[in-house]
Every structure is written in C-alpha cells, then in structure tokens.
Specification:
The protein has 535 residues and is α/β, with parallel strands linked by helices. Helices cover 57% and strands 10% of the residues. Strands 6, 7, 8, 9, 10 and 11 form a six-stranded mixed beta sheet that branches. It has a five-stranded parallel beta sheet with strand order 2-1-3-4-5, with helices on both faces. Strand 3, helix 4 and strand 4 form a beta-alpha-beta unit. The termini are far apart. It comes from Cohnella cellulosilytica. This is Response regulator. InterPro entries: CdaR_GGDEF (IPR041522), CheY-like_superfamily (IPR011006), Homeodomain-like_sf (IPR009057), HTH_AraC (IPR018060), HTH_AraC-typ_CS (IPR018062), Sig_transdc_resp-reg_receiver (IPR001789), Tscrpt_reg_AraC-type_HTH (IPR020449).
Length: 535
C-alpha cells in the first residue's frame, strides 16, 4: 500500500512521516508532493491508496485536489491536515469524501487513528471490488452455458418461447415482427483432423472457437444466434432473411476457412413459422446431417429436401461376429486380416453410406466387443476396458469429407489384433497364476487353506480362481487340497513312530475322527487299515 503527503512546507511532510507508524498500517511506500499540480501527477502515476493534504498551498488550494480525487480517483482515501479551523474547509472535506480533518499541531494518536480508519476502509473496498470482479468473471463464464441451455430448451420445446420472448428480444434482437425461422447444424464429425490438432484434443476449446466465428457473423446484424446444443451439436438458429440462409452460412464458412484453412459442412432445415416451427426445422437439419452420403463429395451447405429419402440395405457387423471371435481366439494375425477383408469386400460395394449406417456399426461393435471381453477375460481385474473407444467411434475422412474405408478397416483390424494379443497374454498369465496357486497349496497343505485366503493372496476373485482351477485340472480346488493332504498322509502313515492323531495334524486336520473319515472316503480304508496293509 502507498501513501502520498501533499504540503508546501517540508517540515510538515517530515513530521507526518515521523508520527505515523507506517508498518503497523501496512503502508510500504510514502511519497511526497509540494503542491496540487505535482500531487495530481503523482496520483496518476503511483495511484496511492491514502493521501494526506493541506488546504492552503501556493497556486491552487487543497479543495481543488479533493475535487480532482473525487472525480478521477474515487477510491483514494483523503485525510486533510490543516492549520485553519475553517467551517468551509471542513464542509468541503466532507463533501468530497475526505476521511478526516486534523488540525495542526498534529496529535500523533489522532493521526494514527485516522490512518487506521482510512486503510481499513480502503481494504474493505478493494476486497469488495475483487469480489465484484470475480463475480463478473464467473457470470461471463456461465453466460454461454446459460444460453446453451435456454436455446436447447427452445429448439426441443417451442412452447418455451413465450417465457423467454422478452429476453430473446433484448439479447438477440428477435422482434415480434419476425414470422419465419430456420435451423442449421454444423457437421462436426467431418472436421479436418489438422484443425482438431490445433486445439490439442480439446473439443470444448474447438467448439468455443467455432461458435465465436459463427456468432460474429450471425449476430452482427441480429440475424440469429449460434449455440451448443446439450447433445453436443453446434446449432445456428436464424430468424431474419431466412430465405438467404445458405448465403449467410457461406459467409460463416468463409470466416472459418480464413481462420482454420478449411471449410466445414452445414446442414440446413426448411423455413418454418416462428416459434412453432423451430423444432421441425432443427429436426430437418438433423435429417440432412444423418442422410449425407459419406462416400461422395458434398457441397458445404446442404438444404433439407422432403423428396430425398434414400432406401438403404444395411450391412450388419453382427453377421461376422462368430468368425471374428474365432479369428481373435486363434491368436494369429492372418485370420484376423482375412475376416476384416471379407467384411470390407461387402462394404466397398455400398455406393451410399450415411451417418446412420456408421452409427449402426459403432453400436454393434461396442456390444460385440463388450460380449467378447466378458467371454474371454471373465471377471479378471486387469482386462481391456469395455468403454475403450470403438473402431467406429469417429469417422476417418479425407480432405473432401469423404469416408476413408481403408482407414476404417485398419482401425477394426488393429483393435481385433490388440484384443487377440491381450487374450493370448491373458491365457499365459492365466496358466501361470493357476500353477502358482497349485505351488502354494503344495507347500502349505498343512495350513488352513481356504478359497478366500487364496483370493486375497493372489488378488483374484474367489469365483475366478474356482472356475479357472476347474477348467485347468478338471477337479474342484477343495478336492485337490484334500487329495494333496491324503498323499502326504499316506507317506507319513508308513512311519510307525507317528500316531494317527499326529499324522492328521501334520497334514492340516485338527480333528482325528474327521481326518479318518475323509481318508476312508478317498482311499476306501481307514488310516489304521491302510498302515497295516502297506506293512
């Protein structure tokens, strides 16, 4: 915090310097000026929070400084120090917002109290200003989110229009005279990867930049507004000169090209009555978006045509599921390449592939992949994620926005190969961990070995260990433990120095009778009978 002492008498300035406990008040720098003109200059340059001023000085009086501070630096706190007990001076001090009026000779206690009050007042105002600034920043950050929600509600339910009509008129210039509206949707699935790379993978930042360009043109003459639909699409809602909407979108595209070096696709719904037709026009724009032929070059602006209704014969990925699973289980690269090539041969015969077909493949593959993960990896904790991005999640397109089928095939093949390698590695680990469990049992058969103990020791589920053990050895884990114990018991029974109770305890049975019962069940003889027979 800074303070400025304004007085034409040097000894008065020095007295104020000596009498104020600057450190106690948090004042780090004390400046001086000998007249009003130099004080104004220093205030403009240094912006002190507290100013001490005399009332009578050469050339201009202190009241002129008070008036200037009130107009140009209203947050500055002023303490008047004067040798004149003049009511007019006191009145003007109050009028111009002075904090205190102290008479000379200066009382140190009174002066420090005045400084403390001025500093505290300034701190409170600064904190209030910071809070207001933070609040303004938060509001500005939330405004786009707020309008995205409001406009999403409007296109989904035009009856919402009556509740926000006044706000739309104030904010966007949508007057009661407007009779028609039109909606356009930006095709984000064919954005050039080079554009996306400029934003380091941040889709939010990319969309923010695109919306700024759209709104800079659309809102310039209050033709409409661009916003982000809650489902992720960028939507442009127009209500002025809707008949020339394609030309306006061309202008928007030109702005995008100048910024990013590439144009994008806009799908435009028909002209519909406002407000009831907002939803219909938006729905038509989405129809255009979903019916684009991704295998052919397309104009950057496509309008809804009610006569266009292509009937497509879909190719289902599920028809190839069994053969893909077999190829995946083989662990070999060639069978996987062969099945992907077989699927691609059929796909390449399709002259028309639209977004709906791509969404169908994406959905089918996600379901199939999740099913494979369950079948191949079971409930093993460390398995490939079912939520990993599907090979069909994004659309590989060339510079003209056309679907690149070879790249789509590469993605599918790469994902199948990755799953196959993970499956083979899982099989190796599977066998390894089961044999580790067997090795542990063989070394600790005399202890109380339970399925829960093994699960905790090897970080696997009880169900997984039980199922995999049965698959590997064709017997239950509990049966194996009993068999190992009985084999060791038969060796110990050959030594006549061990009593039956001792043998039972050495192989993990605390109850001799229960040991004898289990032994007879497995060997057909009691422990004593076995010992006599072997002798």
């Amino acid at each position: 915090m800074r303070a400025l002492i304004v007085d034409d008498e040097r000894h008065v300035r020095e007295a104020i310097r000596l009498l104020v406990d600057w450190n106690a008040h948090g004042v780090e720098e004390v400046l001086e000026a000998q007249d009003v003109a130099s004080a104004i200059e220093r205030i403009g340059q240094e912006q002190p929070q507290v100013v001490f001023t005399d009332m009578i000085m050469p050339e201009k009086p202190g009241t002129d400084l008070l008036a200037w501070i009130r107009e140009h630096a209203p947050l500055t706190k002023v303490i008047v120090i004067s040798g004149h007990d003049d009511f007019d001076f006191v009145r003007k001090t109050v009028l111009y917002g002075g904090m205190d009026y102290i008479l000379k000779p200066i009382d140190p206690e009174q002066l420090n109290q005045a400084v403390a009050k001025a500093v505290e007042s300034r701190k409170q105002e600064d904190e209030g200003t910071k809070q207001e600034q933070r609040k303004a920043i938060e509001i500005n950050q939330l405004r786009p989110v707020y309008w995205d929600k409001i406009l999403t509600n409007l296109v989904e339910d035009p009856s919402y229009y009556s509740a926000i009509a006044d706000t739309l008129r104030t904010e966007f210039g949508l007057s009661e005279d407007e009779r028609l509206c039109r909606a356009a949707v930006l095709a984000t699935d064919t954005i050039d990867p080079a554009i996306r790379s400029k934003f380091a993978g941040s889709e939010d930042l990319l969309y923010f930049s695109l919306l700024n360009i759209c709104n800079e043109i659309v809102r310039k003459h209050r033709h409409g507004v661009a916003f982000r639909h809650e489902h992720g699409a960028i939507v442009i809602l127009l209500w002025k000169q809707t008949g020339s909407a394609p030309a306006l979108l061309d202008t928007v595209n030109d702005g995008i090209r100048r910024t990013f070096g590439s144009t994008l696709e806009f799908c435009l719904g028909g002209e519909r009555p406002l407000p009831g037709g907002i939803r219909q026009s938006y729905h038509e724009a989405n129809i255009v978006l979903r019916q684009r032929n991704m295998r052919a070059a397309r104009p950057p602006i496509r309008c809804f045509d009610p006569e266009e209704n292509p009937r497509l014969s879909a190719i289902h990925l599920s028809e190839f599921e069994d053969r893909m699973r077999t190829a995946l289980r083989s662990g070999q690269e060639q069978p996987i390449k062969d099945i992907v090539r077989l699927w691609m041969n059929q796909v390449e015969r399709m002259s028309y592939i639209n977004t709906e077909q791509l969404e169908l493949w994406n959905h089918e593959y996600s379901v199939i992949r999740a099913r494979w993960l369950k079948e191949l990896f079971g409930d093993l904790p460390a398995v490939p994620s079912a939520s990993a991005e599907s090979a069909f999640a994004s659309v590989p397109v060339d510079l003209h926005g056309c679907l690149e089928l070879p790249k789509l095939a590469e993605r599918l093949e790469r994902d199948l190969l990755r799953l196959s390698r993970q499956w083979m590695e899982h099989q190796r680990q599977d066998e390894h961990v089961i044999f580790e469990i067997v090795k542990y049992i063989d070394s600790h058969y005399a202890e109380e070995v339970t399925l829960q103990d093994l699960a905790e020791r090897f970080f696997l589920s009880r169900e997984y260990i039980s199922r995999k053990f049965k698959q590997q050895f064709r017997e239950n884990l509990s049966d194996y433990i009993e068999r190992v114990r009985m084999e060791q018991a038969k060796l110990l029974l050959m030594n006549p120095q061990y009593r039956i109770a001792q043998v039972a305890e050495l192989v993990g049975y605390k109850d001799e009778k229960y040991f004898s019962k289990v032994f007879k069940k497995l060997e057909g003889l009691s422990p004593n009978e076995y010992r006599k027979r072997e002798r």
